[in-house]
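FORM 12-B: Structure-to-Sequence Request
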């Protein structure tokens, strides 16, 4: 296959409308349009997300092509997020991708959003050094909707070793933020305030789950009750202790994440360890990876910030890797909220 295949990637699984253009696995442009409308609701409102995608998708693709210096006729294939995600949001990206491909007579590629977060490690970008993990490697995928430990044997052979049995780690950040009155998405703000706080100021009970699975719903509930009791004594407790609260809850979440990742590396005997997904932008998690790399002689892989949270660059590159294997989709393939396999 032509290594210089130009791919248009479309990502619309949640609340970011994104389009990217890649030439092979080199990202030429990556445009992300976030949706401010959800802030006031402290979370994503699916109906509003779908409408915003409808408004944004054409201009976002237009800018992505412009930034790449290409015309639509230069695109050889369109890759779009098929699952998992909000169905209404996915349908906007899928319908756009199908119409674009049909109009130009070019093939379609369907992409699993979670695999794309992992395969973001194979993005070449002019801004960063190319340092992909060798196969096999272990990857902790941590996002707003998912938390998984994955054994990546090849770009097309990914085995889930463990996952959350309830909430995702990103959800734990966002829900803790909401309890403290911090706007959505809370993860990046908790990260920011935590830098000014004491991570040992408050202690929260860690969940006990066997094997490589996670659980975050108990932590959320205990944080909720803890805050309710403190706020009864002092209605200004959240504001007065914001930095310490953020640092303490962040430390607890990161400790839980790392505990199982260490176990996964030990049980597989694999020392190439990666993180991916929105929460992999978290500075405490990144520091914990550096610490464990020294302690356990791991080689660690952390994506560039722009490719951690939802972006179409990862969709374009996953599309490219699938195209290399001749895995194309048909016009009758449909997006699904959950992964069907
Ligand atoms: O991967 P992503 O953009 O979307 C999903 O696929 O869900 O992840 C979004 C999640 C949100 O929960 C957000 O709060 C969290 O990633 N997040 C962070 C940080 N940046 C984004 N969590 C903690 N620290 C951050 N710096
Ligand atoms: Zn994501």
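FORM 12-B RESPONSE
SEQUENCE OUT:
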């Amino acid at each position: 296959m032509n290594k210089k295949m130009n791919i248009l990637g479309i990502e619309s699984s949640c609340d970011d409308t994104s389009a990217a253009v890649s030439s092979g696995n080199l990202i030429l442009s990556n445009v992300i349009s976030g949706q401010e409308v959800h802030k006031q609701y402290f979370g994503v409102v699916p109906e509003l997300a779908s409408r915003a995608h409808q408004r944004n998708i054409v201009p976002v693709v237009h800018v992505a092509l412009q930034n790449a210096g290409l015309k639509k006729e230069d695109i050889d294939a369109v890759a779009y997020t098929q699952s998992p995600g909000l169905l209404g949001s996915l349908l906007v990206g899928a319908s756009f991708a199908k119409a674009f491909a049909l109009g130009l007579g070019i093939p379609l590629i369907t992409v699993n959003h979670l695999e794309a977060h992992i395969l973001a490690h194979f993005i070449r970008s002019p801004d960063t050094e190319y340092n992909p993990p060798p196969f096999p490697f272990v990857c902790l995928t941590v996002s707003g909707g998912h938390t998984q430990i994955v054994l990546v044997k090849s770009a097309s052979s990914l085995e889930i070793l463990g996952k959350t049995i309830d909430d995702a780690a990103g959800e734990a950040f966002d829900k803790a933020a909401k309890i403290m009155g911090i706007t959505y998405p809370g993860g990046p703000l908790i990260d920011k305030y935590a830098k000014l706080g004491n991570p040992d100021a408050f202690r929260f009970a860690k969940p006990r789950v066997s094997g490589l699975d996670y659980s975050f719903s108990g932590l959320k509930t205990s944080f909720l009750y803890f805050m309710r009791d403190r706020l009864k004594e002092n209605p200004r407790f959240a504001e007065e202790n914001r930095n310490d609260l953020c640092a303490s809850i962040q430390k607890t979440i990161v400790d839980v994440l790392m505990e199982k990742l260490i176990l996964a590396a030990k049980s597989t005997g694999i020392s190439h360890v990666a993180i991916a997904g929105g929460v992999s932008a978290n500075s405490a998690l990144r520091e914990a990876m550096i610490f464990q790399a020294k302690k356990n002689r791991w080689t660690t892989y952390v994506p560039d910030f722009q490719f951690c949270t939802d972006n179409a660059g990862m969709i374009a590159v996953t599309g490219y890797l699938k195209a290399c294997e001749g895995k194309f989709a048909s016009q009758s393939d449909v997006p699904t909220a959950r992964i069907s396999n």
